[in-house]
Every structure is written in C-alpha cells, then in structure tokens.
C-alpha cells in the first residue's frame, strides 16, 4: 500500500490585472477570515505552531491578529 505525501503544495494564481481596489477587497476578506478563524481556533493553532516552530514568543507575535504590527 502506498503512503500519502506528508505535504501538499497548492498553487494559487493571483491575477495581475486586479485594480488596487480589487486587491484591497481580497486582502481585507482574507484578513477578516483569519481573524474569525483565530477567534474560534486560536488556542489550537497556537499550540500547533509552537510544536512546529519550537519558539513560543515569536509565534504568538507573528500570528496574533490582535497585534497592530501589520508592516508587510
């Protein structure tokens, strides 16, 4: 019996023809979705990220949507 791969790469094509307004709308949608998922599953997500990364402080800062650090 063959094993399933442990990772899956998904390629998402982002249209280069979007207007700035369309790009912002998609960005805001994804940001809101992230906040809602975090509100429901944040503790479990944080625990999984800690297992993967092994660094509690950097993970909490990096993924906590309540943080105002959105400099990207």
Outline of the structure:
By secondary structure, the protein is mostly helical.
The shape, in one word, is flat
Question: H/E series, N to C?
Answer: HH
Could you name the ranges where pLDDT drops below 50 across 5 or more consecutive residues? none
Distance between the termini: 44 Å
Taking Cα atoms only, what radius of gyration do you get, to the nearest Å?
Answer: 16 Å
Alpha-beta content class: mainly alpha
Largest sheet: none
Helix content: 55-70%
Count of runs of 4 or more consecutive helical residues: 2
Strand content: under 5%
Strand tally: 0
What is the average per-residue confidence, as pLDDT, rounded to a whole number? 81
Keywords:
72 residues, mainly alpha, 2 helices, 58% helix, flat
Characterise the protein shown here.
The structure is a single chain. The model has no long low-confidence stretch (mean pLDDT 81). The longest helix is centred in the middle third of the chain and has 34 residues. With 72 residues, this protein is mostly helical. The chain is flat and about 40 Å long. The chain has a domain of 31 residues. Helix 1 runs antiparallel to helix 2. The chain contains two helices and no strands.
